[in-house]
Amino acid sequence: MAAIGDILAYGRWAGDPDAEETWILKTRRLHPALYPLGHRRKLPAGADDKHYAFVRTAPDGSERILVVLNFQSAPQTVEVDTSGLLAPGFVELRHGEFIEYQNPLRLALEAYGYRFYQIVPASRS
Length: 125
Known about the structure:
Strand order of the largest sheet: 3-4-5-10-7-8
Number of helices: 1
Number of domains: 1
Structural class: mainly beta
Radius of gyration: 14 Å
Helix content: under 10%
Distance between the termini: 32 Å
CATH topology: Immunoglobulin-like
Shape: globular
């Protein structure tokens, strides 16, 4: 799903993409930070061999998205160091849930799970 910070989706079998792949592709299309020319910056996530977190920034700087990935076959609590992010909070892209800024940001992720969070601009607090 992620390669060098670019969001990719592909089907393992011939045919149409499944619902999850469709959601990923639609999300990528709707958010300039996830466009291929967006900038990627890694964030500390506690255990780099188990989790990965990065911020994608739109080429024009208009949007930032925090992406958190769990590479484990079991559910994990991931702690992301958000100290370098100036933001009042985050909006989870799938459900639109607002999370107030916290450092570290603690997330429960299912096995091989992931979350995308739009970083709310500081001027919109």
